[in-house]
C-alpha cells in the first residue's frame, strides 16, 4: 500500500514508519516533512499536500498540538490553538482527502487517553480528542467507496515520560512500538468507526 503519514518525524510517527515501511510505500509529511510539507491548521496547505502526493491507499495522522492550562486559565485564544490543530486539522485532513484515498482505503486519526481519563490542565486536549472520536464514529457510516476511518487513543508514551510525567501521575506509560501496532491494525485490518485504545 501507499501510505501517507502526517507527523512522520514525531515519536509516534517514527514508530509507525518503522512498523509499516517494510511492507508498504511510506510518504512522510509534516511541517518539516521529508516528502511533503503540510500545516494542518491551514486548509490550503492540506490541499497542496494532497495535490503533490496524489492518490494513496491510507492516510495516518500522528500530529496535532494542544494547549495545557487549568480550566480557570483556559482562554478562548489558548483553546483555539487546540481546536485549530488537534480537532479541525484532523477533520480537514479527512474532508479534503476523501477524493485522494483509493477505494477500500483508510484514514487513521489520533486522539488520546485524556478524553476518557482526565488529567489536570488537560481539558482542551480532552475536548479536541473527544470531538475527533465522535467525528470518526459518525463519519464511518457515510464514507464512500469502502473507505474506512478509525482513531488511535494512546496513553502517555514511555519515550515522553520525562517531559510529561508531572501531568500523568500514576499512569502506566506505553512504548511507542506498541502504539504503532494499533495504526497497523487500522490500516491493514477491515474495521471502521473504531477507537483503538492503547493503555
Question: Which key terms come to mind for this protein?
Answer:
199 residues, alpha/beta, seven-stranded parallel beta sheet, 38% helix
Task: Describe the 3D structure.
By secondary structure, this protein is α/β, with parallel strands linked by helices. 38% of the residues lie in helices and 20% in strands. It is built from six helices and seven strands. Strands 3-2-1-4-5-6-7 form a seven-stranded parallel β-sheet, with helices on both faces. Helix 1 crosses helix 6 and helix 3 runs parallel beside helix 4. It starts with a strand and ends with a strand. The model has no long low-confidence stretch (mean pLDDT 97).
Amino acid at each position: 500500500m501507499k501510505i501517507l503519514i502526517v507527523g512522520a518525524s514525531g515519536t509516534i510517527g517514527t514508530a509507525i514508519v518503522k512498523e509499516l515501511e517494510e511492507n508498504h510505500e511510506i510518504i512522510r509529511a509534516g511541517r518539516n516533512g521529508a516528502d511533503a510539507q503540510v500545516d494542518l491548521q491551514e486548509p490550503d496547505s492540506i490541499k497542496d499536500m494532497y495535490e503533490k502526493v496524489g492518490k494513496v491507499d491510507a492516510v495516518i495522522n500522528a500530529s496535532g498540538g494542544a494547549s495545557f492550562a487549568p480550566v480557570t486559565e483556559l482562554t478562548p485564544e489558548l483553546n483555539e490553538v487546540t481546536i485549530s490543530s488537534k480537532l479541525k486539522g484532523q477533520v480537514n485532513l479527512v474532508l479534503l482527502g476523501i477524493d485522494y484515498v483509493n477505494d477500500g482505503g483508510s484514514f487513521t486519526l489520533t486522539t488520546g487517553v485524556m478524553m476518557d481519563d482526565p488529567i489536570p490542565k488537560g481539558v482542551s486536549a480532552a475536548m479536541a480528542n473527544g470531538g475527533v472520536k465522535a467525528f470518526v464514529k459518525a463519519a464511518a457510516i457515510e464514507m464512500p467507496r469502502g473507505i474506512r476511518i478509525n482513531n488511535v487513543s494512546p496513553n502517555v508514551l514511555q519515550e515522553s515520560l520525562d517531559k510529561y510525567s508531572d501531568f500523568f501521575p500514576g499512569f502506566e506509560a506505553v512504548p511507542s512500538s506498541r502504539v504503532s501496532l494499533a495504526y497497523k491494525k487500522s490500516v491493514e485490518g477491515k474495521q471502521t468507526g473504531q477507537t483503538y485504545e492503547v493503555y
